[in-house]
Amino acid sequence: MNLQKNSYFCCENNNNANVDEFFKPYLRFMKDLTKKIAARYNNDPTRLMDILLDLHEVQNHVSDDQVDTLAKILNQSGASIRETISFYHFFSMKPLARYNIYLNNSITSVMRDRQSVKEAFEMDCDIEFGQVSEDGQFGLFNTSCIGMNDQDPAAIINGKIFTNLTPYRVHELIKGLKSGQALDDLIYENHGDGNNSDPDVHSMVYNHIRKKSIILKKDYPFYEVLKTKLKDVSPEDVIHKVEASNLRGRGGAGFPTGLKWRFGRKIEGEHKVIICNADEGEPGTFKDRVMLTEYPEMVFEGMVISAYATGADIGLLYLRHEYKYLLKFLNRKLDEMRAIGVLGKKVAGISDFNFDIRIQLGAGAYVCGEESALIESLEGKRGEPRDKPPFPVEKGYLGYPTIVNNVETLATVVKILYHGADWYTGFGTKDSLGTKLLSISGDCKFPGIYEVEWGTSIKEVIEMCGAEEVQAIQVGGPSGMLIGVKDFNNLNSNELMKWYKPSGMMIAEKFFDRRLSYSDLPTGGSIIIFNKHRDLLKDVVMNFMDFFIEESCGSCSTCRNMPFVMKNKLQKILDGHGVRKDIDDLLSWGKTLKASRCGLGQTAGNPILSSIFNFRHLYEQYIQSLTDFDTGFDLEKSIQASAKFTHRKASLHSF
Amino acid sequence: MNKKIIATTSLAGCFGCHMSILDIDERILDLIELVEFDKSPIDDIKKFSRPVDIGIIEGGCCNSENVEILRYFRENCNILVSLGECAIMGGLPAMRNGIPIEECLREAYIDGVTVGENTEKIIPNDKELPILLDKVYPCHEVVKIDYYLPGCPPRADLIWNALYALITGNEMDLPYEVIKFD
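Predict the joint structure of the above. Result:
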C-alpha cells in the first residue's frame, strides 16, 4: 500500500473539520490495521518487535495515533513503545519513502569509493542522505555495516541487497525505479552462487567461499546426528563431548561452549531457552551470513542438539534485519525439519524432547549482538545490555535460563558430534582447537570466507587472499586493536589483552608472523586489510569512531559521550592543533570507557587507543613541537559571524 | 613567608562565584594575612601592577574582551584557577551555543517578545562594545588553566580550602561531600 503521505500529514496538522471528516475512514483503517497486526501476536507486548516490523512492512512507518492504539491494546505506556521505535535504525515514526535506500557506510565501503556512489544517489534522487524526497518516492539513509564487506559498496533497498554499486549502476537503478520497473527486475539476471539463487532467497549476494576445511566441507548428510545418534546418547554425554572438544564460542569472546551448556543444564527453570545469535554486526564480519545461506541445516541442528543437552524447549534465532532476505528461506528450512520430525514434538523420536525454533528479526542495532541486549530486543524492548549478574544462563529471555550461542559455534557442534571430539581436537593448536571462519575484506584480490585452522599466521592469511603492499590488518573489527611496527618490542600483548579485552587487533607488517589463536590473536573472524595507500587515522580510525558513536545505545554515560569526545580530539590533532598532552589525554580518558556495562562501550575507544599504542608515529607527525598548549581556538575566526551580522569591522577590541 | 599575590576577574559570569569568595566570612581576615589582592573587582584595581601568583577566573568567554582579559591574566599570573561552572563548562551563558549567533541577536534585540521599542531595528554595534564570539567558550579552551574548582557557585569552604592549600603548599582537604554533585 502506498500511503498518501502528504495528505496524511495534512490531516494531522489541519484543524479543518471537513478534512478531519474526510480522513476519518483512513484513520479508522490505520487503527484497525494496528489492532489486526497486534492480534496476530496475541496482543503480547514481548512481541512488539514483530508487531512493529509487520506495521512497517505495510506502511513504512508507525504513526503517532498507532502508537497510542498499540499502547492501549498491549497495556504499555506510549513512551515505552516510542523508545523502542526510536532505538532501531529500520523503525521510523515519520513516513519513509516508497523506496528506502540504506547505503552501507562501513570502512570497506568507503575504501571502494562509497563517496561517488553516495553522490550518484543524491544527484539522481535530488535529495541528500537522511532525507525523503518530496514526492515520497525515494529516501536515502546511511547505515552501519550490513555484512557485505566482500562486495561493497552495498545498499539495502526495501529489504533487497544491492552489491558492488558504482555510479553507473546507481543511475541504472534509479532510472529503472523511476520508470516503474520492479525492484526484483533490477537485480541482475544472475543471482548469487549457491542458495543465493534459491527461489526463496533470490539475491545477488555472493558467498565467496574461498577455502573450506572441516566445517564447511560438505561431507555431512544434514540432520544425521539428530536422526541416528542423538537418541543413543544422554544429554550429559553430549555436554561431555563438547567439553572434550574444548570448543570455545566463535562470536569473539571465546567462552567455553561445553561449560556454558553445563551451567544451562544445571539451572532449573520452567522453560529453558536456546538462542542462536545471528545478529552479526561487527564491521567486517559476514561469515554468519554465509553459514545461514549455505549451512542453515547445521545451524538449526546445532540448536536442537544444544537444546537436548541443556533441556531447553524454546528456540530462538535472532536474525539481523540486514539479512531479512534470508528469512523466508530459513523458515522453509524449519518447516522441512518439522516435516521430517527433527523439530517440534518428540524431536528425533525422543519421547520427552519437545523443541521448536522461531526466527526473530531484528531491526538494525549493532549492540543487539551483545547477548543480554539481544534478549531485551527479543522481549520487544530497546536493545540495551543488562547489568550482570544475573547472567542470561541464570535469568535470560522472559526470566528463563537462556543459552546464547553463535551461528558458527552451533554448526561446529554438529560436526564434533558426528566425527567425535578426538577428530576435532586433531585440528588447530594446543590452546585453540579446530578451525575458524574468517571474513576477509579490504585491500585484497580475493575477499571472502576462509575456513582456516587456528594457528594460521597473518602472513599466511595475506598470501591466501592475495593482498599486496599491506600496511595494516584489522583483526576482530573496530572493537579490536591496532598494533604497529614501532612499539611492538615494548608491547606485552597479554597485558594489553587484560586491559582492553579486545575481540581482535590491527597489526602491521612486523608481526605478520603472529598467529590466530586464543592466546595470541583471538578473533571473531573479521579481517580487514589496509594497503600502504590508506590513511589509517583519517579514514580508518575516524570511520570506526563514527561507527561506535552511531551504535551506542546511550545507556552508560561513558560510552554515550567519550567516543564523541575522543573523536573530536582526534579531529583536532588531524587539523594540526594537536599537542603532546592530547595524546596523553586520549589515553587516560579512554580508560573511563572500561566503566561501561557491555563490550561495545568497553571497546569503543579501541580504534584510537590501540592506534596510539601501535601507530604512534602517525599521531606524532601531527603534533606541534613548539607549543604545549593549543586548543584550536581562533579569536579572529570566532568573531566573524557576529561582526558581519552587526556590520562591524572584525577588528579586535583593545582595552 | 611573603604574601602571595592574588588577582580575580569575572568574565561571562554572574559574580556569584565572587560572592562565594566573600562567603568565607571571618576567614577573610586570615586570608588577608596570607595574601594581597592585585587586579580584582574586590579592590577595583584595573591593571596588573606586578607579577601575580594566583589568578582566579569566574565565567567563560562570550566576547572578544573576555578573551583578551583571560589572555592578559594568563600572561601575568603564575597559576590560573577556573572557578565555577561557567569558567569550567561555559555554564548558563553557553546555552546559546546550539543557536547561531545571528538568531540570538535577532531574538534579543528585534524579535523577542520582551523587546521594547526598537523601531529602527538596531542591534548594538558601537565600536566601543566588545564583539560577541560565535559561541561561549570555557576558559581552558582559550588558555591553559591549572586548576578547576567546580560548583555553581563553588562552596565557600571549597574555595577556602583550595586557596589555603595552594598558598601553603599543603595537600588539599577534599571531603566527599564537597566534590559530589548529585
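The radius of gyration of chain B is 18 Å.
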